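At this stage, I put together a protein sequence along with its fold in token form, as given directly below:
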Amino acid sequence: MTRLHLVLPFACLLFAGCPGDPPPASPLPGWPQQRSVARHGITWTFSTPMTVGEFVNGDPWVLGPVHLVAIDPACAVVGERTVHGAMVDPDPSTLQHGYDSALFGQWAERHYEPSRNAALGIGKEHPLVLQPGQSLVSVASTKAPEKNQPQIDVAAVLSCVDKPPPKDAFRPPYCKATAAQKKVRFREADLDWRVLPELKPVAGMPTADAEAAKFEKLWLDHFPSWVGRFAHPCQAMPDYGRDLAAETGSGALLLCSKGTKADKRLLLLRFVQFGIDCEAIVRNGGSWPGNGGHGSGRKFPILFAGAVLHDESLLAVGKDFESERAGKRFTSYFGEDAQTFVVAETAPGEIDFGGANYTKDHLGLPEWGFSHTEDPKRDDSRWDLDYRKCCTANAWLGYGLAARAMGLVPAWHHDAFFAYLDRYQQVEKQWRAWIPWHAAMWDAHRKDL
């Protein structure tokens, strides 16, 4: 008996997808009915034609409940590796997953769980039943990932709904979330373009369409650790945190610069969708801890979406999720917040928790630490540190400037981030910006914001 057959009974029980289940819900007259839908090279096939449509960002929905009888590329065992898996409402609080048994490289074995792989063994005899309010995230695995390279090539999400959403609706978040969060909450009609600044562009900026293409495919980003980089789909997004943060900064600055609605619409839709997904991740146990060059770039899209949608839940993430250290206890939600702080006396006669080379002369200084909230003993006052200069603040200035331009500093709720970013731009000469035109925008506009 193969490994695949061994897990089938449990998979049937978990996803209610065994023979004898009731038939899928009847299609709704007047809407398109299809036997399958596809997105980014991944195809989902149903047992019967179903009512389907698209959200405003292009991701598909299906009226449910629905029986899925095939996913292409099909989940398979290649040698000792299970590839092309899928998950229903992936849990952002854990590294356990069902996407690919090689995911996370040398740490793969401890985190892959066949019971979480919704694609294992599905077929006409063992359909996967997707209920309204659920999201199915399917992946196509890379063929042969090299060391320290992502193991996922592309990911796509299929959402099951109980009624056709408005044609301009944003997709509900793909991760595990509350019933309220899984409902269709936002529409393009809700977007308030008036909150977007119109900064004067500088030379070297890409077009908004070119930047929008970088946010077209699903940014699969729900794992609460730096090793989540290995799940970042190669076709969709940068795997490294610095590069991800820099792309977020490019999208932020382009949306905050002069341009027509027609030029910026696609980027705006995709950027807001990213923010909606990130909010659900952090509100349901997820985080992006600051660790070297990892963890940054996720907070601004949430606040940005909150600003253009005038949504209090999105705007409250800064207040609700503070990355901070309190004695031996710490919380670490967003990378740039977890790495920035103001040097303080943390106990009588103790500066910065007593583990770093700070003196009373440093008190009040906006500062950076490799993983400050989790391990302040790694803080170091020396400027000439690799991660300080190569991989963090030089990727933050794009959305740091955009946050100022949009008046989001109070909502960000971590002043040390902005204070350190100002200090970094004043002190650093060689590694000011990972993307050069970000520095030009800073020089042109920071003095007025």
About this structure: The longest helix spans residues 261-283. The chain has two domains: 3-178, 191-322+385-448. The longest strand covers residues 42-54.
